[in-house]
């Protein structure tokens, strides 16, 4: 840390403890867990950048919810399958809102994937890895230097129970999500001495539009969960907010699955 950054760090920590003057970037922020997290962080006093791929209207609705809470919000489009998109996103956010001090890497793909490895071609594998694993690394690479210089940062990577079990979506999805855990372990060792925490949240069976629409299927899935129902995006968001508030929690992977898998 530079001398200037060392002098600023205690001030930054005071701002953070009071919930002021911190910018959170939430990828995949236009729906589901991402939108719930954007609103929850705004409730804690953070300004929020809502990143999305294509649904500008939904992203703007989330931004309006953030503004209604008295915080500043911006919406930013980006296709995380493109190698230049993560760095470009961070540059756009920091030009408009200021330095990113909280990163919630939530954007991912799990729809219409193939479970049979014999049918997965290299192009399909690479696309899933680009969105689910490469993009979180690249966006983290773009923000972590500033976090270290300022002596404060929070990075939360959104994984899945598939990282532990293999899941039902496909081997490329499971492998990409498992990779986030290794990435977090490495990043935490690198950055934790500089006030930057890195953690993973791994949800399972959360009631979002990424779940099957058939009520019978949803009921069957709910019966498998010890708490007897699907999880809610707001419950995952509440955990993420708690992680952001906690400066002593780092290098951890936390399951949110209604008790399906004890750790």
Which descriptors would you attach to this protein?
263 residues, alpha/beta, Rossmann fold, 7-stranded parallel sheet, 9 helices, 7 strands
Counting DSSP E segments of at least 2 residues, the number of strands comes to: 7
CATH class: Alpha Beta
CATH T-level fold name: Rossmann fold
Strand ordering within the main sheet: 3-2-1-4-5-6-7
Instruction: Give a short account of the largest sheet.
Output: 7 strands, parallel
Proportion of β residues?
5-15%
Look at the helices and sheets and give the structural class: alpha/beta
From the coordinates shown, what is the CATH architecture?
A: 3-Layer(aba) Sandwich
Helix content: 40-55%
- One letter per element, helices H and strands E, the order comes to HEHEHEHEHEHHEHHE
Shape label: globular
The low-pLDDT segments are: 4-12
**Whole-angstrom Rg:** 18 Å
Task: Give your account of this protein's structure.
- With 263 residues, the protein is of the alpha/beta class.
- It has a single domain, classed as Rossmann fold, CATH 3.40.50.
- Helix content is 49%, strand content 15%.
- It is built from nine helices and seven strands.
- It has helices at residues 3-17, 32-43, 56-68, 85-96, 122-150, 162-165, 171-191, 215-223, 233-245, and strands at 23-26, 47-52, 73-77, 100-105, 153-158, 196-203, 253-256.
- The protein has a seven-stranded parallel beta sheet with strand order 3-2-1-4-5-6-7, with helices on both faces.
- Strand 2, helix 3 and strand 3 form a beta-alpha-beta unit.
- Helix 2 packs parallel to helix 3 (56-68), helix 4 runs parallel beside helix 5 (122-150) and helix 5 (122-150) runs parallel beside helix 7.
- The chain is globular and about 45 Å long.
- The model is unreliable at 4-12 (pLDDT under 50).
